[in-house]
Structures are given as C-alpha cells and as structure tokens.
Amino acid sequence: MPADSGVQQVTIKFYDAVDSLESNERFRDIRPTGVYAGGYLSKINDTTVRITPFVAEVQSKITTPYYQVKIETTATVDVTVGTSTPYVVIRWSYTGVANDDYAEMLGVASPDTRDVIIGECVFSGSTLTGFDYVERHTPLVMNLVCRVEPEETPSMYVRVRAGMVHAGDSAVIVADQLTSVLVAPGSGSKTGAVYIDDTGAIQVSSDFTWAGQLVLAEIALIQSQTQITAADITDVRAFLTPSAIPDDTTIRRDVTTGLLETVPHTHSQLHDESHTHAQLHNEEHTHSPTFKILWTYNPNVQCVEQSVWTKLAFSTVSKNTGIAMSNSQITLLANKAYNITYVAQFESTDSKSPRTRARLKVVSGDTSWDLEENTYTLAECGLGTLYGEDVCLTWSGWIIPNQNTVIKLEAMTRDEDDMDNWGQCRYCHINVYQSEVGAAS
C-alpha cells in the first residue's frame, strides 16, 4: 500500500464521507472562475437588464475556507441597474443553509473580489445606451501554456511551463524547462525578457532588445539582484501567432519597431525591341510594398449564435500601405492580383457541436468568383462538445478582380438545420498583399 508521501490532501479519497464542503473544494485553484458560456445582456428599460442563461464557475465570498461551484441557469434573469450601479455580477455568498445557497445576479457600483463580472452598463445621462464587456470575467483556460514562473527556490533563472506555439512555418512543442541565467545590471534597473525565437527556442534578454519576438514575460532587474520572484515577473503572453514568417528575404522585422515588413527588391527591367536604345539599358527599380494586415482580439466576442452570414469587424491595423478600408470592408483595385489570407478562431458556447463557417464576400464590384455558396473562399468545421473548445478556420488564395471590388470577411456560428447548436468568434485576422497581374504565378 502506498505511503502518504508529502502529507497529501486527496480530494476525495475512497470511502470518505462527502458533503458539499469537500465536494466544492475539488476545483478550487484548478478551474478558473468566470463565465464559460452565455450570460449576455439586453435592455428591458433604462433601469432593468436581462441576462441570458449562462454557465459560470464562481467562488464564495467567504475567505477561509472559500468554496467554488459551477452555476448554470436555464432561464433568463432580470436585474435592476442604474448609473450608480452599472456592473452586473454573479455573487455567491455561501450560507451553509440547505435549499438557500443560491448565487445572486446583481447590479453593483463596484465588484467585490470574488464576484464574477458579466458586463458593465453604459449610460448617457440616465439613458441606458449599451453594454461594455471589457471587464467581463472570461476564464483563462490557456493560463498554464508557456507560463513563466520563478524557481521553487528563487534564483536568477526562471521556469517556462510546457506548451505549443507556431515558430517559422511549423508548430513547435515547448518543453517544461529552466531558462539560461538573467543578469542583473551593474547599476540602476532595467527590464529583461523571456521570449521564443523564430526557431521555437526559449531565449532570455537582460536588456530591451527583443522587439518583434514572441515575448512570454518581462522581468524586472535591479542592481545586485540575486533572485527573481513572482513579483518581478510580468506576464505578457498574447496567445496569438504571428501571421507571417520573417525569412529576411521576402519578409523581415523592422529593427526599430519590430513590426513585420516586406523586403524591398530590385530587378533589371528588360524592354522589348520597340523601345528606344536608352530604354534598353537595365533600370534598377525598388518596389514599395502594398499590403494591409488587420486583426481583432478582445473580450468583445463577435458573431454570437448567428445562423446567417455576419460581417466580422477588425479593431487593429497592424500594418498598412496603399490598400483602402472602411468599416472593416476592404477595397481591391481592378486588374491587380491580391494574395489574401484570413484566419478566424471560434469557440463553442454550448455543449453541442455547431458547424462554424467563414468566407470572403463581395459587397460590390466583380462577383465572377463570388459563387452562391462561395465555395472558393469558404472554410468550415464542426466545433467539439466542450464549453470553450476552440477551432481555427483559415483560407489563402489569389483574387484578381476585373473592376474595383469591395470585400468583407463573414462568419456563421449557428447551425441552420439545428438551431440548438451555436458558437461565437473570438479572434479574426486578414492579410492582403497586392501585386501586378502576372506576378501571382
């Protein structure tokens, strides 16, 4: 029979008597709290909002010990709000009283430490005008992936937890490992970093020299420092994958900003025999890149439970030169060749398996390649059956419009033939590169 190595607390051992106290300890500090599915707000009037059914993980307000439970509602809940109580929260105050131990949904002025925030009401004067989900508690289920932590006995090394990332043109498994040593400055203070380079290897920098890399954490370093603790580590993981591969031949990083840019190239233009003798000389030309890189990723999910094609909006322009966009719609010029790549990340908001779809859609202009079901640019896949399970859809190809054409990225997250299954879009990204017709080959 195995011995009790390490003074273990096993939840729950065979043959133990179990009550709600023991049962509710099972996922404490293991499963992140927050809203896992549903829980969106709609206006009833200026002082009342309605919460859609939700699934959430909530901790009790008791401090020692505190408990943690899953709470699922199966009906809508109306909550009173106001300009002085704009936050809508889930609050569970453990009572220890049978049949009276339910969570509350409240409008509050300021959320308590263990409240789960659903959203914030936005007012203009006394008029409720909308909802803000920036402070919504969305569980960070990917929190352990490549997380940087201090050693058990702090030193000038730090530990990187295991994970998987895209580096270059392939996926790389990152093993759980200690970094190389970080060096304290000779005087004053500076910021170091732990990052993953383009080959997928863990690197450290003891000075600010990692612009454009996939940075996992920033490390505060001061003179004569001998150990790095949790207080010195700032988590800066973005959980995003760079969309382009810097090979320093076609794409490189700007040495100052760290942003990706195309590499200007030169070539000799050979003119046909009808040109003058002067035109027959080789002429060196440097081409300015024409491209646009857009992305959006924030707590405000898009295309929630949509059974019709819905436009995806972009909140950030990472890089842009020469391609017009308005209201997340991109203009392609006539007789230009465009290499377009899009990525859309979806997550399930139900325990079913909805089919998610993404496509490019012509708003106006050349519709010759825009088929009824858009099979050219269409990507689709079924989500899994776990709450919050993600899938990424991607497409890449060439489009050469015969007239000026406006396009948009659309998605669908709810099955047309099974309306009980639904999902939502968490992240979308599109790259558009323009070249002359003939260059696409």
List keywords for this structure.
1 helix, 6-stranded antiparallel beta sheet, 3 domains, Jelly Rolls, mainly beta
CATH class category name of the largest domain: Mainly Beta
Contiguous uncertain segments of 5+ residues: 266-288
Cα gyration radius (Å): 27 Å
Category from helices, strands and their pairing: mainly beta
Mean pLDDT: 77
CATH hierarchy: architecture of the largest domain: Sandwich
Largest sheet: 6 strands, antiparallel
3D shape = globular
Approximate strand percentage: 35-45%
Provide structural commentary.
The protein has 441 residues and is mainly beta. It folds into three domains: 20-132, no CATH class; 148-235, no CATH class; 284-436, Jelly Rolls (Sandwich), CATH 2.60.120.40. It has one helix and 34 strands. The strands form ten sheets. Strands 25, 27, 28, 30, 31 and 33 form a six-stranded antiparallel β-sheet that branches. Strands 26-24-34-29-32 form a five-stranded antiparallel β-sheet, with no helix packed on it. A hairpin with a 2-residue loop joins strand 9 and strand 10. It is globular and about 75 Å long.
